[in-house]
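Check this.
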Amino acid sequence: MTALTRPEAAPASSTGRRIAAAGAAVAIAGALTNALGYLVPVIGARQLTSADLSALATVLGLTAIASVPGLGLQIAIAVHRARNGAASTNKISIATAVVSAGALAVLAPLLVPVLDLPAHYTLLAALATLPTVLAGRWLGELQGDQRFLRLALGMAVLAVGRYGGLIVGLVAGAGLTASLIGSAALSWLIPPSLAVLGRSRKAHVADAIRGREVLTACSATLAMLVASYADLLLARHLLTADASGAYSVGTVLTKGALWAPQVVTVLALPRLAQGSRRALRTALLLVAASGAVLVAASALAGGFAFALAGGDDYTHLGRYAPVFAATGALYALVFVLLNDRVATATKWASAPVWVAVVALLVVAEFIAPHTLAGVMWSALGAAAVALALSAAGRLRRR
């Protein structure tokens, strides 16, 4: 009996080790991405004035939102590849990158007065957006093929390209403008690096990816990132420079809770594209557990969390730490459900999140007080609305 069971156990054990290794690699790459992303405002809080810190946070928010189509491109390519195999991605990738960067450049005249931001900051953000979005092509191919070790390395390349120049500039005391220029220049090394890393021997046999697939994924991820950054932009618009700078420190905790469990969604997406309900249940449980731990930690050490994110000047805001963390934890669950909606070709996949964004804008602008706490609680409510609507939609599809 034992002899008969051993041959079956070995492959299962080998598969488990491969999954664990892939998960660890992607988790490390995700941690590096988060660490570099969080390091920027942390260094900025110590090197810049409150006004420049708020401007930096706003530029990062704009760049993140404009770069969302890159994540949508990655998801669309990964889903298509997991279902159908290799396909040509050149034209759709270039078109997506050009439109994303071009939209930010075109909107610059409107963003400058609304956000009180110098025009050249917005243009530098657009310049860095194009290569960042284009990276989604190779990352999507690696994810769809479940080549997670190479995917992890590609994520690390993207993270260094996005944040490396900015970090070096801030540490060197070069000032905000020079640091943004260095960041935009370094980002253009991302595409050629990923092109080498993502080489594949697979022939292009599947139908080319349709624009509608990419548009659906881009809309979903854009909704997600707009929702997670909308409170930061509202704080810039509604609060004083000092208050919005303090709020930007709190959003470091939000982003930590949102992106800390991203490895779960990355590994689950190919399985979700193949209709695995077990993958969805497992992903939700793991992400929920991560959020619970981070919220509890923020409640116990809120002052320390704010001091770590922005310095001793922000320790007194520690009582707000669990709320910022809870907002990110709720959005992390929404992100899992959003990926599932895209992977299963659900119509109007991003609708629940867009509804939450509109609710946040209305409440923060016209109902809630224009204070740090007012914007913060409005953001938490919007995250809860997005999760409730996403979960209700999933239950209806069962």
